[in-house]
Fold this protein.
Amino acid sequence: MEFIHYKNNSLFFENCSAYGLAKNNKTPFYCYSKAKIIKNFKNFSKIFSKISPLICFSVKSNNNIFLLRELKKLGAGADVVSVGELLRALKAGINAKKIVFSGVGKTEDELRIAIQKKILLINIESESEAVLINNLSKKLSKKTSIGIRLNPNVDSNTHKKISTGRDQDKFGMLYKDCFQLVRKIKNMKNLKLEGISVHIGSQILNVNPFRKTLLILNKLISGAKINLKFIDLGGGMGIPYSQKQKELNLKKYANEVKKFIKNKKIKIIFEPGRFIIGNTSVLVSKIIYIKSSNNKKFIILDAGMNNLMRPALYDSMHEIIPIKKSNNHIKGNLEFVGPICESSDRFLSKKNFSQIKEGDFVVFKNTGAYGMSMSSNYNLRPKIGEILVNGSKYKIIRKRQSLESLVNN
């Protein structure tokens, strides 16, 4: 995360003092780098430039409207999985013809709105959904563009809770069912089958699962003999959360996609979320207490699993660093935990951490994706604020929820 750096042992976000931000804004809060967001999006676009894809940012990874507006300026579309995300994307100024609607359980009300808004594609995941969209479209005198989400039965070799492309996962349709539905849709007069979609999981750091998926897609397209406008390859591109993890070789993936589309007149759609936003943010937190217990010290923070759910939900790891770095270290076992009344409200175990004390500040790295968007009011705690840094300046892009509004509503 190059937007984070130390000057004389004091942490900076771009050119903003992390300590100054923490002293002037109630912790915990999320802090994003505008420059890093722009750099990530442009880098993704550059790597796939020979393919010229439509890049639909995954709104579920981060739904802050200010950030969506910044991505819209860069040319991004949106991948949404609820009507709330759809309306948020439209409010951010994203063109309806750059929005794809995914998800296994879209309701009738959600589908009706998506049809009325004339979005680019509704990626269906069952025959029943196709029938419902056809009936709704008929009532609304519309012809709706859809894609079918294929479940290719490919193991993405990621955490089981974020794997979506195996035959035991709830997402998409298996190859044979997909094949049959293609034929049935030809008799549904208010549908236009324009795409095939796949998304095999999240936090994928190896190109092999993507390569296998492309081979299965090729087989389906040639076997079903359908003329498509779009192939939606989803997202899933991972980022390193620790020094032990290697970066995904995105250039290698781009070469695979380039070979895949050879002699095909189709537009590729990508749905990156984490790859664009994941490493652009930190979560800033204050140390409330340091408590010794047997052979370890508990570093009790004001940030909890209600602010950052990923460690409790996925056993994920976010590196934690101090805002003021010391040449001295606390020896022994440390465990960074939150204030929530759950044993799973724990973040990281460390040894020999930089000298810290109660009242000091620390930051969690790589929190831009599925941090704020997964946050909750569990234990009746207010949603925290979000800040966007731009050089030496910053602005609040989401105010901290007031305790009064939380308690009274």
In short: Residues 193 and 321 are 50 Å apart (CA to CA). The chain is about 30% helix and 25% strand.
